[in-house]
Amino acid sequence: MATDKIDKEALDFLKALSANNNRDWFEAHKPEFKSLEKEVRSLYSSLMERMRKHDDIEKMKWFRIYRDVRFSRDKTPYKTHFAGSFSRAGKALRGGYYLRIKPGDTFAAAGFWEPNKDDLLRIRKELELDASEFREVITADVFRKTWGELAGEEVKTAPKGFDKEHPDIDLIKKKQFIFIRNFSDEQVLAPDFIEVVDESFKRIRPYFDLMSAILTTDLNGESLLR
Questions:
Q1: pLDDT tens across 104-163, in order?
Q2: Which residues contact 104 (CB under 8 A, 6 or more apart)?
Q3: So which residues are the signal peptide here (predicted)?
Q4: Under a CB-based contact definition with an 8 Å cutoff, are residues 151 and 180 in contact?
């Protein structure tokens, strides 16, 4: 049965792992980790069940605790957080959701982390043509109160082929189109944490609806779906 609450023991374990990020310590505490991981994954499953009541969620991806250190300066072998993502289903729906649980640095995110080259160009072309609807959606009171400002990496001036003096260049130069909501440890441990996360994800829907419409049509509004 899926659980709806994070136990303090999960955060305490992650704090201890952060202070003892080595294989000997982890192997000695692996049974505890496995038990806590099972509980937290159950919470993510419960969240997905809630989300499926208001969006078409195709699958959940659970991120393993083990770090890939081959190309990293940081050689610590383990992540010090739990994380999972949720993919929206089908070509007609785009974007995804993400939740990371880490002591002192928990956040939910939604949007477009790594849009492919064609999708990124399509978004930029839409914003170049007319960004008014996009701005209307992301500046709505309830939306902004929940998600704050648009986040994500961006180019320094303007993408190739775009005017750096364009009035909407602040949007056009984005490489990622994501929103992030942070949570304190107190909020994470509250009985209604998953409800709050789910409600936050529900409030991102106008943004996803707009982006789905953009990414499934050309600049003339003709459908690209086959």
A1: 999 999 999 999 999 999 999 999 999 999 999 999 999 999 999 999 999 999 999 999
A2: 185
A3: none
A4: yes
CATH number at 8-215:
3.30.930
In this structure, the number of other CB atoms found within 10 A of the CB of residue 85 comes to: 18
DSSP, collapsed to helix, strand or coil, labels residue 168 as coil
pTM of the model: 0.94
Question: Burial code of 70-81, b = ≥16 C-beta within 10 A, e = fewer?
Answer: eeeeeeeebbbb
Q: Are 202 and 54 in contact (CB under 8 A)?
A: yes
- Joined together, the tokens standing for residue 137 give 């959606």
Q: For strand 177-183 and strand 96-101, is the pairing parallel, antiparallel, or unpaired? A: unpaired
Closest alpha carbon to 37 in 60, 6, 67, 68: 6
How far is 170 from 207, CA to CA, in rounded Å? 17
- Sign of the C-alpha dihedral, residues 197, 146, 151, 126? positive
Residue ranges per structural domain of the chain: 8-215
